[in-house]
Protein backbone atom coordinates (compact mmCIF):
# COMPACT_ATOMS: atom_id res chain seq x y z
CA UNK A 1 0.00 0.00 0.00
CA UNK A 2 2.85 2.36 0.86
CA UNK A 3 4.45 1.94 -2.57
CA UNK A 4 1.11 2.51 -4.29
CA UNK A 5 0.52 5.74 -2.34
CA UNK A 6 4.02 6.92 -3.15
CA UNK A 7 3.23 6.88 -6.87
CA UNK A 8 -0.53 7.50 -6.74
CA UNK A 9 -0.42 10.89 -4.99
CA UNK A 10 2.11 12.63 -7.30
CA UNK A 11 0.49 11.11 -10.41
CA UNK A 12 -2.96 12.16 -9.20
CA UNK A 13 -2.10 15.80 -8.58
CA UNK A 14 -0.10 16.10 -11.80
CA UNK A 15 -3.08 14.66 -13.71
CA UNK A 16 -5.44 16.96 -11.79
CA UNK A 17 -3.38 20.01 -12.72
CA UNK A 18 -2.93 19.04 -16.39
CA UNK A 19 -6.62 18.28 -16.95
CA UNK A 20 -8.32 20.78 -14.65
CA UNK A 21 -6.07 23.77 -15.21
CA UNK A 22 -3.94 23.44 -18.34
CA UNK A 23 -6.35 21.40 -20.43
CA UNK A 24 -9.53 23.30 -19.67
CA UNK A 25 -7.69 26.65 -19.93
CA UNK A 26 -6.51 25.76 -23.44
CA UNK A 27 -10.00 24.59 -24.47
CA UNK A 28 -11.76 27.71 -23.16
CA UNK A 29 -9.05 30.04 -24.54
CA UNK A 30 -9.70 28.67 -28.04
CA UNK A 31 -13.42 29.42 -27.65
CA UNK A 32 -13.24 32.92 -26.17
CA UNK A 33 -10.01 34.08 -27.80
CA UNK A 34 -8.23 35.02 -24.59
CA UNK A 35 -6.60 33.52 -21.50
CA UNK A 36 -9.31 32.42 -19.00
CA UNK A 37 -6.85 33.01 -16.16
CA UNK A 38 -7.99 36.44 -15.03
CA UNK A 39 -6.51 36.54 -11.54
CA UNK A 40 -5.45 40.17 -10.95
CA UNK A 41 -1.91 41.36 -10.48
CA UNK A 42 -0.73 44.04 -8.09
CA UNK A 43 -0.95 44.48 -4.33
CA UNK A 44 -4.74 44.35 -3.84
CA UNK A 45 -6.32 41.93 -1.38
CA UNK A 46 -7.80 39.97 -4.29
CA UNK A 47 -4.42 39.72 -6.01
CA UNK A 48 -2.93 38.47 -2.75
CA UNK A 49 -5.42 35.60 -2.68
CA UNK A 50 -4.25 34.62 -6.17
CA UNK A 51 -0.62 34.70 -5.05
CA UNK A 52 -1.41 32.48 -2.07
CA UNK A 53 -3.24 30.05 -4.36
CA UNK A 54 -0.13 29.75 -6.53
CA UNK A 55 2.08 29.33 -3.46
CA UNK A 56 -0.07 26.52 -2.04
CA UNK A 57 -0.10 24.76 -5.42
CA UNK A 58 3.69 25.02 -5.63
CA UNK A 59 4.09 23.75 -2.07
CA UNK A 60 1.76 20.83 -2.83
CA UNK A 61 3.75 19.96 -5.95
CA UNK A 62 7.06 20.07 -4.05
CA UNK A 63 5.63 17.97 -1.21
CA UNK A 64 4.31 15.26 -3.55
CA UNK A 65 7.60 15.16 -5.46
CA UNK A 66 9.51 14.76 -2.20
CA UNK A 67 7.12 11.94 -1.30
CA UNK A 68 7.95 10.26 -4.59
CA UNK A 69 11.71 10.60 -4.09
CA UNK A 70 11.92 10.07 -0.33
CA UNK A 71 8.79 8.05 0.55
CA UNK A 72 9.81 6.75 3.96
CA UNK A 73 11.08 10.07 5.30
CA UNK A 74 8.25 12.25 3.97
CA UNK A 75 5.36 9.89 4.72
CA UNK A 76 6.49 9.54 8.34
CA UNK A 77 7.14 13.24 8.92
CA UNK A 78 4.52 14.66 11.32
CA UNK A 79 2.27 11.66 10.70
CA UNK A 80 -1.01 11.47 12.65
CA UNK A 81 -0.82 7.78 13.55
CA UNK A 82 -4.35 7.75 15.02
CA UNK A 83 -5.73 8.12 11.47
CA UNK A 84 -3.36 5.62 9.87
CA UNK A 85 -5.67 2.82 8.76
CA UNK A 86 -6.05 0.89 5.51
CA UNK A 87 -9.80 1.52 5.38
CA UNK A 88 -9.30 5.29 5.60
CA UNK A 89 -6.58 5.16 2.97
CA UNK A 90 -8.73 3.21 0.52
CA UNK A 91 -11.62 5.59 1.24
CA UNK A 92 -9.34 8.56 0.57
CA UNK A 93 -8.22 7.12 -2.78
CA UNK A 94 -11.83 6.58 -3.89
CA UNK A 95 -12.79 10.08 -2.71
CA UNK A 96 -9.90 11.65 -4.63
CA UNK A 97 -10.84 9.87 -7.86
CA UNK A 98 -14.52 10.83 -7.51
CA UNK A 99 -13.51 14.43 -6.77
CA UNK A 100 -11.40 14.63 -9.93
CA UNK A 101 -14.25 13.31 -12.09
CA UNK A 102 -16.65 15.74 -10.37
CA UNK A 103 -14.39 18.73 -11.06
CA UNK A 104 -13.94 17.80 -14.71
CA UNK A 105 -17.71 17.40 -15.16
CA UNK A 106 -18.37 20.79 -13.54
CA UNK A 107 -15.76 22.49 -15.72
CA UNK A 108 -17.21 20.98 -18.89
CA UNK A 109 -20.69 22.10 -17.84
CA UNK A 110 -19.43 25.66 -17.45
CA UNK A 111 -18.27 25.63 -21.08
CA UNK A 112 -16.92 29.06 -22.11
CA UNK A 113 -18.01 30.64 -18.80
CA UNK A 114 -15.17 28.92 -16.93
CA UNK A 115 -12.52 31.26 -15.54
CA UNK A 116 -9.68 31.24 -13.06
CA UNK A 117 -10.68 34.34 -11.11
CA UNK A 118 -13.33 36.99 -11.74
CA UNK A 119 -13.64 38.20 -15.33
CA UNK A 120 -14.93 41.78 -15.11
CA UNK A 121 -14.37 42.48 -18.81
CA UNK A 122 -16.63 39.81 -20.35
CA UNK A 123 -20.22 38.98 -19.44
CA UNK A 124 -20.47 35.26 -18.83
CA UNK A 125 -23.56 33.04 -18.61
CA UNK A 126 -24.84 32.07 -15.17
CA UNK A 127 -24.64 28.28 -15.09
CA UNK A 128 -27.37 26.62 -12.99
CA UNK A 129 -27.77 23.20 -14.63
CA UNK A 130 -25.96 19.90 -14.13
CA UNK A 131 -23.86 19.77 -10.98
CA UNK A 132 -24.67 23.44 -10.40
CA UNK A 133 -28.16 22.33 -9.34
CA UNK A 134 -26.57 20.82 -6.22
CA UNK A 135 -23.74 23.26 -5.55
CA UNK A 136 -23.10 26.87 -6.48
CA UNK A 137 -19.38 26.07 -6.45
CA UNK A 138 -18.96 22.44 -7.55
CA UNK A 139 -15.38 22.98 -8.72
CA UNK A 140 -14.25 24.38 -5.38
CA UNK A 141 -16.24 21.63 -3.65
CA UNK A 142 -14.42 19.00 -5.69
CA UNK A 143 -11.04 20.56 -4.96
CA UNK A 144 -11.81 20.65 -1.22
CA UNK A 145 -12.96 17.04 -1.24
CA UNK A 146 -9.82 16.08 -3.16
CA UNK A 147 -7.62 17.61 -0.44
CA UNK A 148 -9.70 15.87 2.23
CA UNK A 149 -9.15 12.57 0.45
CA UNK A 150 -5.43 13.33 0.26
CA UNK A 151 -5.39 13.79 4.04
CA UNK A 152 -7.10 10.42 4.53
CA UNK A 153 -4.59 8.72 2.25
CA UNK A 154 -1.60 10.40 3.91
CA UNK A 155 -2.62 11.62 7.39
CA UNK A 156 0.19 14.05 8.12
CA UNK A 157 0.23 17.57 9.50
CA UNK A 158 1.40 18.75 6.06
CA UNK A 159 -1.60 17.19 4.27
CA UNK A 160 -3.92 18.70 6.87
CA UNK A 161 -2.30 22.11 6.34
CA UNK A 162 -2.96 21.88 2.59
CA UNK A 163 -6.61 21.04 3.34
CA UNK A 164 -7.01 23.84 5.88
CA UNK A 165 -5.21 26.61 3.98
CA UNK A 166 -6.68 25.54 0.64
CA UNK A 167 -10.21 25.55 2.08
CA UNK A 168 -9.76 29.03 3.57
CA UNK A 169 -8.44 30.45 0.29
CA UNK A 170 -11.26 28.85 -1.68
CA UNK A 171 -13.88 30.25 0.70
CA UNK A 172 -12.41 33.74 0.27
CA UNK A 173 -12.41 33.33 -3.51
CA UNK A 174 -16.00 32.09 -3.46
CA UNK A 175 -17.16 35.20 -1.64
CA UNK A 176 -15.29 37.48 -4.02
CA UNK A 177 -16.97 35.75 -6.94
CA UNK A 178 -20.38 35.95 -5.28
CA UNK A 179 -20.07 39.74 -4.94
CA UNK A 180 -19.37 39.99 -8.65
CA UNK A 181 -22.17 37.60 -9.63
CA UNK A 182 -24.71 39.60 -7.65
CA UNK A 183 -23.66 42.75 -9.52
CA UNK A 184 -23.57 40.95 -12.87
CA UNK A 185 -26.74 38.85 -12.70
CA UNK A 186 -28.79 40.60 -10.01
CA UNK A 187 -32.07 38.94 -9.04
CA UNK A 188 -31.34 35.89 -11.17
CA UNK A 189 -28.29 35.06 -9.05
CA UNK A 190 -30.04 35.98 -5.78
CA UNK A 191 -32.85 33.53 -6.62
CA UNK A 192 -30.28 30.86 -7.49
CA UNK A 193 -28.43 31.62 -4.24
CA UNK A 194 -31.60 31.00 -2.23
CA UNK A 195 -32.28 27.75 -4.04
CA UNK A 196 -28.82 26.16 -3.99
CA UNK A 197 -26.29 26.03 -1.16
CA UNK A 198 -22.81 27.51 -1.48
CA UNK A 199 -21.08 24.11 -1.33
CA UNK A 200 -23.70 21.33 -1.40
CA UNK A 201 -27.47 21.03 -1.33
CA UNK A 202 -28.64 17.66 -0.05
CA UNK A 203 -32.28 18.09 -1.05
Automatic annotation (TrEMBL):
Keyword Nucleus assigned: no
Record-linked Pfam families: PEMT
Any one of the GO BP annotations: methylation
Keywords tagged on the record: Membrane, Methyltransferase, Transferase, Transmembrane, Transmembrane helix
Molecular function as annotated in GO: methyltransferase activity
Compartments, as annotated in UniProt: Endomembrane system
Residues spanning the membrane: 7-26, 46-66, 87-105, 139-165
Membrane protein topology class: Multi-pass membrane protein
Gene Ontology CC, one term: endomembrane system
Protein name: Protein-S-isoprenylcysteine O-methyltransferase Ste14
